[in-house]
């Protein structure tokens, strides 16, 4: 990669938005995921290599954080307002947490891949990623 290509700034916000929408952070056209949460090795539209990503546990942690911070106050408010049975609370909030998690997880993972691409992390910058021992 040339020095000019390495020195060009990549906009973080648009890259994260494209990733959150499930699109390539580089071109915004190709699909980011080849399966529900499996990031494609490369963009089918522009050919950008995406296998460098290291989203690992970050998206899962943020999803749990968001879902629990939304669910806990809502659970308390529903209990105080209507006093539903324990089984009603378990079923309704359990299903709600699962659905919300399934909706948020790919969006958060895509945004994290977009962030890594924009910041040239983990090999997205063209330089080889050297492991430290």
TrEMBL record:
Q: Which UniProt keywords apply?
A: Membrane, Transmembrane, Transmembrane helix
TM segment ranges: 60-82, 88-105
**Organism of provenance:** Paracoccus homiensis
Protein name per UniProt:
Uncharacterized conserved protein, DUF983 family
Xref: Pfam families: DUF983
Extract the InterPro entries matched here: DUF983 (IPR009325)
Top-rank lineage group of the source organism: Bacteria
């Amino acid at each position: 990669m040339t020095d000019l290509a390495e020195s060009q700034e990549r906009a973080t916000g648009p890259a994260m938005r494209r990733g959150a929408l499930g699109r390539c952070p580089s071109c915004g056209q190709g699909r980011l995921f080849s399966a529900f949460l499996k990031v494609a090795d490369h963009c089918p539209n522009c050919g950008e290599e995406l296998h460098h990503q290291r989203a690992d546990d970050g998206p899962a942690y943020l999803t749990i954080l968001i879902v629990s911070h939304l669910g806990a106050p809502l659970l308390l408010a529903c209990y105080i307002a209507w006093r539903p049975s324990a089984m009603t609370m378990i079923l309704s909030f359990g299903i709600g947490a699962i659905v919300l998690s399934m909706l948020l997880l790919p969006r958060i993972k895509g945004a994290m891949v977009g962030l890594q691409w924009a910041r040239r992390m983990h090999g997205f910058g063209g330089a080889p990623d050297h492991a430290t021992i």
